[in-house]
Amino acid sequence: MSDLSQAQPQAPSSAQPDVRAATQASFETGTAPPAEGSGERNHGHSSGQEIALTPMQQGLLYESAAAGRPWVNLEQIVVHLDAEAPDPRALRRAWQQVCARHPVLRSAVLWQGRPLPVLQVADVDAATDQIRVETQDWQGLEAEDQAARLEQFLSEDRNRGCALEQAVSWRVMLARLGANRSVMVWTIHHVLVDGRSMAVVLEDVFAALIGGELPAATAPVTGFEAFSPAVAQVSEQPTSQAFFRAHLDGFETPNQIARLTGSDDRPAVAAPDAAGHGRKQILRRQLPSELRRALVQRAGGVATENDAGPATLANMIHAAWGLLVARWSGRESAVFGVTRSGRYLLEGCGRTVGCLINTVPLHLHLSGATTVDGLLSALRRDAVALRPHEQASLADMRRWCGLPGSVPLFDTMVMFERDSLNARMRSLGGKDDSPWTQRRVELREEGAMPLTLAVYGDEQPLLMLEYDPEVLPASQVAHMLDHLCQLLQSLATAPADMALRDLEMLPEAEATQLLQQGRPDPALAQVLAREMAAAPPCMATRLEATAARMPEAPALQMAPDGAVLSHADLQARADRLAVVLQARGATAGDIIAICLPRSPEFIIAMLAVLKVGAAFLPVDPTYPAAVIAHMLQDSGTRLGIGGPDYGTVSGPDIGSDKGKSAHGHDAALTPEGVVWVAPDAGSELSEQPDRPLRPAPDPGRLAYVIYTSGSTGKPKGVRVPMRALLAHASAITAAFELQSNDRMLQFASLSFDVAIEEVLPSLLAGACVVLRAPDMIGAPGLFLDRVAALELTVLNLPTAFWHVLCDVMVDSGRSLPPSVRLVIVGGEQVNPQSLARWQQLVPGVRWLNGYGPTETTITCTLHDPGLDQGRPVKAHEDVPIGRPTAHARAYVLAADGSLAPAGVAGDLWIGGPAVSDGYIGRPEDTAKAFRPDPFAPQNTGGGHHTSCPAARIYRTGDRAAWRGDGTLAFLGRRDRQVKLRGFRIDLRHVEQVLERAYPQLQALVAVHGKDSPAAQLCCWVRGLREAGEAGTEERAGDTRPDLAALQQVVQRDLPAHMRPALVPVAAFPRTAGGKIDMAALPAPTQASSGLRLRRNGGAALDTSAPPSPLAQQLMAMMADLLGQPDLGVDDSFYDRGGHSLLAMRLIGRIEAELGQRLSLAALHLTPSPRALADALSPGDGDGDSPETPEGHTLPDHLVIIQDGGARAPLFGVHVLGRNEEFYRPLAAALGPDQPVYGLSIGLLDSRTPTGVRATAKLYLEEIQTHYPSGVVHLAAVSLGSYFAFELARQLLAAGRDLGLVALFDAEGPAGRSRVQGRARLGAHLGLLRRMGPAYLGHVARHRIETLRNSFERRRLEWTGGGGALSIEALIAANQQSVERYTPEPLATPLTVFRAGDDLFDSPEGLRQGLGWAPVAAAGFELIEVPGSHLSILQEPNVQDMARHMARIMQRPDPHESGIKGQA
């Protein structure tokens, strides 16, 4: 299997296991070796009767035999006979009798070349005669060695699989352990029997063994031949369709549990479908009997509906698993598979032998407000309602619900049995003297699902969590199992009305740790508490106190050369304006609009409003008139400063000169009664008091209102109280370490809350605020000049502007002026590559990444990566948003409101004094977004006064996760998950795939033409500048990325539904507020992604012509297999969700229904119904006929891996890996201009050639037909090297020009000389030190693989190799062919690549080119590359190999080897 062949170290004694693994990975189908026999007697079933497989059986078959993974879904029933040693002959007779009774046990599974697989029942006598009982004698071994021998046998036995095409594919082994002790192993495929059938068969076998004859059945039993047709009828019932439509309502994609990897423990961004299919591992946990009794008792007390009966232990297990899956996947619902017995379908199925089970989706709705008893009652109701429909197929469910055929309904499943097979067997007879009390039964099995929970409800329930370690690491699965057990404990004692959010999943220590991470640094929190308690709760009073301490210190200046106002002057002018406001009727609690351009008058107006106890509302005078009118009317404003006509026409960032506004304000849009006050009105009133009347301080009084965008299209006003403003100012002053000598740049638009952060904390600290000049935003170079001239010390910049500034500094080689000590960025995600370059340019300046929604009073988390302290930036990791500031708390919560585990993505909620009071006039929106803080301590502290309302938390709408270093990873907006053509797509995931492949890139993904039939996923990309690259400021950011290279990443790392159209841009357009202007992005150009058929002149298909009848027939086949009735005639089978298993079914149907044999290569090249129909149709004689000699339209054995430019192609020969995985990283490393193709024999059957010369001849014909001229490069892995060698010889004989002939770590015909003696021992020790204990496992696997290979080769020698070929048989046959093949010297140089991690090659082996020297007539070059046998073809090692290969292939004469005939 492919996963075993990836990155495995070289076997110390031979390359054989790696050769076998590599060869096996190149094939995608096959069966296992034949079993030793079969037999049965006729009991009403005629020989040859065929029974259709149920959909569940088909799935079990395709997951294992058809996918080339014979160990999957294999059942091993181990019966320990601690007081018995039966006679093997008697045991064989017993099995023969049982086989005769149960037709399934004498049924072959036929599927190759058929549209649908069937069971074919064999003749009883013929089948029973083939039954054998293999015997082994282990009596001379110690008990420990006997146990080890059994484990070894089970491992080898599992790897053999079952030859399902034989009537008796199962087998029995009996091992003698002592005079009165033995162990029996029954091995059978799950497609034939389920767990309850196993119990029936075992009971019958031992009854026949003891009694000599099988007792007669005591009750009628429904046969499987009646059960299978009844299953087919379920999908035809309208009630089943209605049930699953309702049950799966709202389902889009399965709950995906992200793999937690890396030092930061954040969810990994892995390419979908890249997890592979590794061998499973199992974690076990046994629950105490007390917990089982408590769970059963708790379930029995649940009130259920519609006479559903009491809830059960199974319902409790399903509830716990659903909560676990939902919380670990960040969803408010859970869908997982549950195994149903299937025995409710027909009467008399209690003792039916066969595979009657089915796995169906269970959909749980888990909102935080749902109660425990509400969930359990719903589970019981659904479990009972499901019975009539439990045999419906998953394909039908997808079709009924309108889901794409490639979307799985679940990624995890639960199998619950009331008791284990052992407990069930031991309960037979019900007496202490029953023989079964002396027998122990264990079941060994291995499924295909990445995560499966099996629960056996014995007195002490056993939990077995089977997982794929290549999908989820063991540590994470163990963590999940701990959480499951905690949930079961919580369920056992949960009150009926407890909300699910309160149901504990995390152990107390883990929950405490997460809460501590979400609180600010204790020292900062204490300082904030002291300041809030000591100073009056009034911003105006605190600012006046600062001015009184330093009246002449500079406070405010307009760049570039405006007059400087001192703190005393600023307060005096604000006092005069405040007096005017009071004279116009302003009172405490009012909302006063400030509609002014950026100017000192704006800041003066802010202070004046605060002095009268009112709240200020910033209004940008350049906003559309309708927006201004909405803000004024919605907020209830009756008094304003400035006005819509008080500004200039210079654009969104305007100066202080008065003039007409740009939008031509319509007075009719201004709410009636609003009075506008001129900002300089106070200077005209000489008889008014110098200072306004100050209302009593009130921390709960409104301080300001900021309008943000709303979901309805109209902005909504956020109410920020004084307590939040004061807490923020104190927290930011401490975080920024603001001092009186600081000069803070006021950069943000004054209508944004970040402007408040730039102004008020600075003034409180006695610093000077410098208002940005309009020209500073458009020219980064001029910006740097202004910063230097103004001697600014603190810059708070939008992330977008900072990125551009970084590009300019890289281009120009400039750095920040020496006056700058601190830079803060915020508003968007930071590109880590930009940050790494920034550190090189500005190594000694402190840098902070800020985050905070308007609803949580501006910045509420900060991340300090320690750039000024020299901490290196991890350029491949996203930049976190840090930890809470002193006035905030941060929680990452699951969708139901419980704490999300560390590293798991969840909703980011903010609490603490930072939380605002909600939205003006929108109680429903406020109730949705703001909730009581369930984690707040009784004494809220941190600035909460006794008069303040209870602590609340705000749902930001952003997703986050706690990293391993205790900081928050920002995972993007929740609303950045879109649905397109039935697929749920995380836009940030697509961006990350591209940005991580090309760190010098910024990507922005969105849906272009959303909600239209032409909606398209698009990715706009811009390049970043390299540090030290020459250029000018004008070129900053205008580095257009290589679209061809990016397209390779898209094709390689993203599934079809997530592949965007790529659109290069020089820069992202921005709105006035600095956000990306999505409407201004260029539309994607339409480009065809289909492959053109290689016909005369390479003419493309006419897609405008009506489809032919054959195309329509093929379209119907594809649509049926994919479950997508809307599939079009020009849609790609693979783009619409097709994969290798579905491709195999399609090929089988085409062969069965159309009588035409199709190769996988041809389907890859013509994946649409129209193209495939054209390929299968004979030429019409009009000049558009195929060019191949035999009349085939397309190649049978050529697979496109990378269809590059005009360079000479590289052909990977024979051993390609699953989905060509051995060559895809190499192709990417060679670059998009290098064409790379694969040559493979494809599907396995008796017609598949295995001889070296015969196979090479097929490949030669393929090349001659489709690439008749030009230089050809060849490459091969392991065993494939002999096929490449012979192909090179035949190409030369045909007069073709050969370039590179690369052999990857392959043993040559002279043998690969290895070190011996002490040197060999030293190599073993070296690998043991390098790999640790895993090396011992590798050695053991190597020995097992050797035994398996030896067995298969002996079997081929005995049988002659006729009939269908399994993967095992094909590998062995190829090895035999290589041994029979005598290579002749080759008159072209060889390039042999050696794995540098192999410590066993001797000096002689290196001199002999790993054994290729005797046949390298033109010499060879031996090149050592980093990695092991197969990891040399994987990142990052493949980059080294690609450089060597490119060097050779790009020579004018590739035959000019650098080193000929030596290492």
Automatic annotation (TrEMBL):
Biased composition (Low complexity): 1-17
Renumbered residue ranges of the record's region Disordered: 1-48, 1171-1193
Alphabetic keyword roster: Phosphopantetheine, Phosphoprotein, Plasmid
Start and end residues of each Carrier domain: 1105-1180
Leader peptide range in chain numbering: none
Pfam families in the record: AMP-binding (PF00501), Condensation (PF00668), PP-binding (PF00550), Thioesterase (PF00975)
Name the UniProt record assigns to this protein: Nonribosomal peptide synthetase
Source organism: Phaeobacter piscinae
